[in-house]
Structures are given as C-alpha cells and as structure tokens.
C-alpha cells in the first residue's frame, strides 16, 4: 500500500502536449477512478505512473519519495490491461507464477501466493488451462490474479472491463469492489464509463483533453459539478442544458428567461449575473417534475417514451427545437404527441456562465 502524488505532470508526444500539467494526490488504500472520453490521456497518465512512459516534466512521488527515475519493474506497481495481455502458450498457473519466478521468489512462496489469489478470484479450477480455453471474464480474472500475486503497493487498472459484455461487466465491477475492500490496497482505475466511475470510486478524477476538470467523491461531482463538462459527463442520462438570458433585476431576485420557456427566479448577486448575460441552466432528467400548465418552466411534446419498468425516460421537444430528457420514476403513461408541462423539483438546477463554469448550484 502506498500514497501517490503527481505534481504538474506534463507529457508531450513530439510537439503534441497530451498531459497538460496534472496535480493529484491519492491516499493510502484509496480507490481512485480516472474517467474521461476516449483520447483524453487516461492510458498515458497511467503509463506515466507505472513508469512505462517517461514524463516530459513534473514529479511523481510514492510515499513522499520521487520515483520518476525508478524503472517500471522497481516501482512495485501492478497493471491490469484491457487486453488482458496473458501469455497464450502458458497455463493459468504459469501465467501467475512467471513474473514471480523471474523475481526469484522461492517456489513454496509462489505456490501459496497462487493458491490465495486463485481462492480470492475463484479460478482454482482453471489453473491448468491455457488462456485459449477461458472465457473473457475468466481471462480478466487471471490478469487481475497476476497483479494480486505480486502484492503491489498500488494496483493500476486500464479499462479492464471494457471488453466484457454488459452483465459480466457489472459482475466483475462488484468483484473488484469486494477485492478493494478485502485487500485495502491503493487502486487507480481508468475508464471512459461514468457508471463504472460512480460505482467503484472513493474519488473520481475527471480528465478532459489532458487536464483535470474536477476531483471529488461520486456524489460531490453529481451534486456540484464545477462546469458543464463535468455536469454532462457524470449522470445518466445526461444533464439537460437549457440556454437562458438574465433579465433586469426585480427586488432581491435575479430573473433568467429560458429560451423557449418561462422565467427562473433565483437569488444571486448582480455582479455574477448582470442583465443581458447569457447563461445555461443545467437540469438533470430526474430533477424534472410534471406540473400544471400555469406553473411550467418549459412545455414540450413527447417524441419518444422509453418504458424500462422501474423508470421511464421521455424525450421531449421544446418549442425552440431543443430536445430534453425527462426521467420519471415508475411507469409513466405517456405516448408520443402528449404535451408535458415541466418544472424543476426542489429547484435542483445549476447555473453555468458563458465560460461554461458554474455560477451557482441551486
Ligand atoms: N506513443 C504515442 N505517440 C504519439 N501519440 C500518442 C501516443 N500514445 C498516445 N498518444 C496520443 O495521446 C492522446 C491520449 O491517448 P491515450 O492516453 O491513449 O488516451 P485514452 O487512454 O484516454 O483514450 C491521444 O490523442 C493519442 O493519440
Ligand atoms: Mg486508453
């Protein structure tokens, strides 16, 4: 187990800056998920931590010691890849023992490490098979087993579940969660999937274009996104963004006129929202409620209703041509063409400025 710290880490490939000054501190035993769209630099960041890639500048510290110059094999980290990267000609047992043998770990110790890992991951019956005789999920367990037997200070996972089908992915997610509880090890997990991030992480790091957008617990990010990127990335279906403009102040209230909708009245200082300022109101699908026409913030027509049983997602087109997503608990009796009058429950909305940064969570 170890703490990890990144200080202003920059990585260029040729003239292209891919990691643009990342600062991050990860605590002992913490499960941190780095999430962001494809190509944002997640794998590169993980490979820099692992020592598989050299930084352009910055510092990486483990337990306050700089490890920038420590070669990958000596960093006491173990990485699990999306592709599993198992040796196809070796049995599962050999795949697990091979790295330890090269490190000259005594035979009986290797044996007990393999037995313990096989028990943890329930792969005891597979030890004499070769990877070609395993399913994708079993291969991924072996790849995780190979990390466990090395008893690393930090586990690094690079999208380890992305090649699995949906059901298996959910199952492995739960197992990785349990594994973290049992081993209490520091784990850094990279994914493009916000659900994986929300369900696994103690803290989530949102990476976008090589920069950290925000760091926080899953619910901190859900409740208080710093900007529209984070608001849109965390939560499924996505947060709706409704354009609006600030009207002249009346009394204490700032009034925002929604394009294609009515007015929102809220208390804000006029410094942050001068008259005429363009803003975006972020509303999560599950924050809308159906109301009478005279209380509606927006009104629109149902295009599609997805009936999932436990909940209903409704795609509603507004008069200005925008489509919004509305999430309703349970089985809503709505069909295409129905009119919906919507307000925001308990004023659960976020106001973003023209620079896409949050002005206020309401
Ligand atoms: N070895 C490399 N040489 C040049 N560019 C690279 C190299 N590895 C990654 N990149 C580029 O760096 C960016 C980030 O890649 P990567 O870290 O793999 O993203 P992610 O894992 O988030 O999908 C991409 O634009 C990718 O093309
Ligand atoms: Mg990647």
Layout of strands and helices, then pairs:
Layout: E1 4-13, E2 16-26, E3 31-35, H1 42-50, E4 57-62, E5 65-66, E6 77-81, H2 92-102, H3 107-121, H4 136-149, E7 154-158, H5 166-183, E8 186-191, H6 194-200, E9 203-208, E10 211-216, H7 218-223, H8 228-233, E11 240-246, E12 254-258, E13 263-266, E14 278-283, E15 288-290, E16 298-307, E17 311-318, E18 323-329, E19 339-344, E20 350-352, E21 358-361
Parallel strand pairs: 3-8, 3-9, 6-7, 7-8
Antiparallel strand pairs: 1-2, 1-4, 4-5, 9-10, 11-12, 11-14, 12-13, 14-20, 15-19, 16-17, 16-19, 17-18, 20-21
Helix pairs in contact: 2-3, 2-4, 3-4
The structure holds adenosine-5'-diphosphate and magnesium ion (MG).
Report on this structure.
The structure is a single chain. With 362 residues, the chain is an alpha+beta fold. The chain folds into 2 domains: 4-233, P-loop containing nucleotide triphosphate hydrolases (Rossmann fold, 3-Layer(aba) Sandwich); 240-361, Beta Barrel (OB fold (Dihydrolipoamide Acetyltransferase, E2P)), CATH 2.40.50.140. 24% of the residues lie in helices and 35% in strands. It contains 8 helices and 21 strands. It has a 6-stranded mixed sheet, with helices on both faces. A hairpin with a 4-residue loop joins β17 (311-318) and β18 (323-329). The longest helix is centred in the middle third of the chain and has 18 residues, at 166-183. The radius of gyration is 25 Å and the shape is elongated. The model has no long low-confidence stretch (mean pLDDT 93). Bound molecules: adenosine-5'-diphosphate and magnesium ion (MG). Residues 42-43, 159 line the site of magnesium ion.
């Amino acid at each position: 187990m170890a703490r990890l710290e990144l200080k202003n880490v920059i990585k260029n490939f040729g003239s292209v800056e891919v990691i643009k000054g990342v600062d991050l501190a990860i605590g002992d035993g913490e499960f941190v998920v780095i999430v962001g769209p494809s190509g944002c630099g997640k794998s590169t960041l993980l490979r820099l931590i692992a020592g598989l890639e050299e930084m352009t500048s910055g510092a990486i510290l483990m337990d306050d010691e700089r490890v920038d110059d420590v070669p990958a094999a000596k960093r006491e980290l173990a990485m699990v890849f999306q592709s599993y990267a198992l040796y196809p000609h070796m049995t599962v047992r050999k795949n697990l023992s091979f790295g330890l043998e090269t490190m000259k770990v005594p035979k009986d110790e290797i044996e007990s490490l393999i037995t313990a890992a096989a028990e943890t991951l329930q792969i005891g019956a597979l030890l004499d098979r070769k990877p070609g005789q395993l399913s994708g999920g079993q291969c991924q367990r072996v790849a995780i087993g190979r990390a466990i037997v090395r008893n690393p200070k930090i586990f690094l996972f690079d999208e380890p579940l992305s090649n699995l089908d949906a059901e298996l992915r959910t199952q492995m997610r739960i197992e990785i969660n349990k594994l973290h509880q049992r081993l209490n090890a520091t784990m850094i997990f990279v994914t493009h999937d916000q659900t994986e991030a929300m369900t696994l992480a103690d803290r989530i790091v949102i990476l976008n274009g090589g920069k950290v957008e925000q760091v926080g617990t899953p619910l901190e990010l859900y409740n208080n996104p710093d900007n529209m990127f984070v608001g849109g990335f965390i939560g499924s279906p996505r947060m709706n963004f409704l354009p609006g403009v600030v009207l002249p102040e009346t009394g204490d209230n700032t009034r925002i006129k929604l394009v294609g909708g009515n007015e929102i009245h809220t208390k804000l200082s006029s410094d942050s929202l001068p008259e005429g300022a363009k803003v975006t109101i972020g509303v999560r699908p599950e924050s809308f409620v159906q109301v009478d026409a005279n209380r509606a913030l927006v009104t629109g027509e149902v295009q599609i209703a997805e009936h999932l049983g436990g909940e209903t997602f409704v795609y509603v087109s507004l008069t200005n041509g925008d489509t919004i997503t509305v999430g309703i608990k349970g089985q809503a009796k709505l069909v295409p063409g129905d009119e919906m009058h919507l307000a925001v429950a308990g004023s659960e909305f976020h106001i973003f400025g023209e620079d896409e940064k949050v002005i206020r969570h309401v």
